[in-house]
C-alpha cells in the first residue's frame, strides 16, 4: 500500500453505526504497487501502480453482465473476503481469521486483494490522489456525471464539503454547470470548494431557513440539482426542500442505519421533483478510474486540493476524531517505503 484515505464509512464501522463482522482490517480507499500476482492473474504486472475499488464485481451476475458493476449483488466486498470465500489474514497469536473491509482492507501496510479490485492507473499520480480516486472521487464526480448526468449550463448545489462533496463540486465543474453553490459550516472547506470549481458558497448555520433562502437567492429560486454529501436527516430534508419545479435531489452521503427523512408529498409530486440515490457514483472502476486519473493529470480534476492532512498509521484514532468533528476535507495515511 502507498496511501489510504480515512473515510466516514470507516468511522461508521469503527463507532458501531454499521454492523460488520470482525475482527476486520478497516480501510476501503487506497492505492498501492503490485508486489506479487496470484495464480492465473495476467492482466496486472509486478511494480504496477493501482487504485483499489471497494466494490469488487463478481463478473457473472445480471448487473455485471449488463455493464453495471456498481450494482453487483454478489460482490465479495459485502462478505469482506476473497472471491473464493477465504481471507488471507490471520492473527499471529492464535491464527484467528481476520477479514478485510470490502475485501481490500487498505489501512494496512500490505494487503491481498482480488485481481478485479486492482485497477491500473497511469504513472506520475501522487499516491494520496490515487487513493481518493478509489472512493470519494469516483463517488462524488460519478454522482454528477454518471448518476444525475448533469447537463452543461445547469445550476447545482452541494451540501457538505468533505472529500465526497468536494468531488461533487469538481464533477459539476467538469460537467460545465453554470452555477455551482457549495454549502458547509467550515470556512476553510468553502475556500477549497471555490478553488476546485464552486462559483458561490454559503456558510450554513443552525437556521436551515436562512441557508435555504441564501441558496434560492443564488440560483434563481432553487438549483436544478442538489447533491447531499453528508448523510444527515436534516441536510437530506434541506436538499429536497431546495428543489424548484422539475428539480432533482441526489443523495450521496451515507447515513447510520435506521435514519429516516421526510418531505411534503403533494408539492413534490405536483412539481415533478425527483430523488436519486447514488452509490459509488455508478462507478465502473476498470473504465472510470483511469479516466479520472487522466483528467487529474490534465488539470481538470484537482484531486490533490482535497487532501488537507497526511498522517501515519499510528495517528488513525486522532484522524477518526477529526472526522467526528468535521474538521478536515480528507485525511490520508501515507505509507513509507
Number of alpha- plus pi-helical segments: 10
Please list the strands of the largest sheet in the order they lie side by side: 7-4-3-1-15-14
Distance between the termini: 10 Å
Unreliable stretches, pLDDT < 50, 5 or more residues? none
CATH topology of the largest domain: Quinone Oxidoreductase, Chain A, domain 1
* Helical coverage, percent range: 25-40%
Rg over C-alpha atoms, rounded to the nearest angstrom: 20 Å
Major sheet description: 6 strands, mixed
* Backbone shape: globular
Tally the beta strands.
15
Mean pLDDT: 95
Topology pattern, helix = H, strand = E = EHEEEHEEEHEHEHEHEHEHEHEHE
Counting structural domains, the number is: 2
Secondary-structure arrangement, i.e. CATH architecture of the largest domain: Alpha-Beta Complex
